[in-house]
Amino acid sequence: MQRLGRDVADLVAEHLATLREQPVLDVVDRATAERLIATAPPSHGTDFDTLLATLRERIFAHAAREPHPGFIAYVPSCPTFPAVLGDWLATGFNFFAGVWPMASGPNEVELVVLDWFRQWLGMPEGSGGLLTSGGSNANFTAVVAARHEATLADPASITRLTLYMSNQTHSASIRAAWMAGIPRENVRLIAVDAEHRIRLDELADAIAADRAKGLLPLMVVGNGGTTNTGAVDPLGELAELCRTEQLWLHVDAAYGGFGILCERGRRALAGIELADSVTMDPHKWLYAPFECGCLMVRDPRRLTEAFSIHPEFLQDVESAGAEVNFADYGLQLTRRARGIKIWLSICYYGVDALSEAIAYSMELASHAERFVREESSLEVLSPATLGILCFRAHPHDITDPTALDSLNERIANEINASGRWLISTTRLADSLSLRICPIGFRSTIEDMKELVHAIGSMAAGGSERKQRAVRT
Question: Are 164 and 207 in contact (CB under 8 A)?
């Protein structure tokens, strides 16, 4: 076991140490993938060295390298190595973290980590929650708890519940409402302002209109850093509106929540401490490996009231007093000990180092914005916000929107085909936008400069191609 473990550790360490030399993404089609590995289960065993070599050479190569310094698409996961080892330890010991008696030590670690999060958010003492598989699970858990509270007296009223969020909110919140049984036609997507933040006037009007129709407004989902642009809704004002309307305020800060560890992020997320519940993803901006989300709730009793159940076969492990059974807080009974990897990483580096890394990634996006503004053929569509920048190629002689979209799509494809970077696209104000999210701690200012210069050169080349076509 020790030898095999060292072989695996060496393979992972070599992978991480050589990321810059590797392509950021390698994709094969399904037919090719099927030829890489036998599909029938083997009748006889194979030695581990051969199996490890098969995985290394034939399987692991064909995937994205999320910790790669050029992986700046979507929202990267760039775990620290101590966090990876923490995950390994939790898996190796195979802790059952659903109930206190089976993992009192590991569960106390999770409680400690959750209280660190509470303190960082500024939520009051007594707030708590649980670590989840990710933000989708956390959002769903919050919606179910709110639904339970609202329909306890009249379960049939679920068909009248309505839920509100901006049209920039992650699709996970929409899906959470659907899965919780809220009618799809009762999920309201509210317009945003020029900074991609929810419009409070339209939100208030929508709530009033629904009440007038006999519907039951339930929850507002505020954004603590949208995936599209990093926008943060006016959380303090949302909290005031929700208090007045007696609605549950849930903040989806799966992406941006841990930005609160640095000064710029704290300013942007002001008011998050007033939420009834908050989603954050340590596997995004706290440098933990997949899977690791979190739901923090101002009053954890709202979770136990919605999820706690005591079958006969669990009577020996029912929670008593201060002990917490995390199975009573959400949908999982069997759950892994996710707190260890977070605790190990934070304790190894210290909060100051993690805060500096988060602040630096915000600066990277700001530097990228500066580089974009220096390129005459590029334009900013959404300024750097919480580490995300949206921009596009826009040569002065190309004005047709369709042609601009085609140019930017071609540039994104060429950039990604290079193997040096992986960027993503989105749509803002009906325009195709290039989007970068450089939050991995291996990315540098020089990387941003090189990328923007490459895109600027492609944009200028696109303009030249158009001129040649016109002359022809």
Answer: yes
The pLDDT tens digits for 87-104 are 999 999 999 999 999 999
**pLDDT at position 470:** 43
Give 415's Cβ-side CA count (13 Å radius).
29
Residue with tokens 């990634």: 361
Beta strands 388-393 and 431-436: pairing type? antiparallel
How high is the pLDDT of residue 461? 84
Q: Which residues pair with 220 in a beta bridge?
A: 164, 249
CA distance 193 to 291: 33
Q: Which two tokens stand for residue 8?
A: 């695996």
What is the rounded distance in angstroms from the CA atom of residue 166 to the CA atom of residue 200? Answer: 10
Q: Per DSSP, which regions of 122-203 are E strands? A: 128-132, 161-166, 187-190
**pLDDT tens-digit series, residues 32-54:** 999 998 778 999 999 999 999 99
Contact 64, 422 (CB under 8 A): yes
- The closest of 422, 180, 139, 164 to 296, measured between CA atoms, is 139
- Give pLDDT, residue 462: 67
Contacts by residues 121-126 (CB-CB < 8 Å, ≥ 24 positions apart):
121/257, 121/260, 121/272, 121/273, 121/278, 121/296, 122/272, 122/273, 123/273, 123/275, 123/278, 123/296, 123/298, 124/298, 126/299, 126/300
DSSP 57: I
Q: What type of residue is 278?
A: V
Helix intervals (H) in 18-154: 30-36, 48-54, 81-93, 104-121, 135-151
Beta-carbon contacts of 169 under 8 Å, excluding residues fewer than 6 positions away, are 189, 221, 223, 226, 252
The reported pTM is 0.94
Does 176 score more than 50 pLDDT?
Answer: yes
Whole-number Å distance between alpha carbons of 196 and 235: 14
Residue-wise pLDDT for 237-257, tens only, equals 999 999 999 999 999 999 999
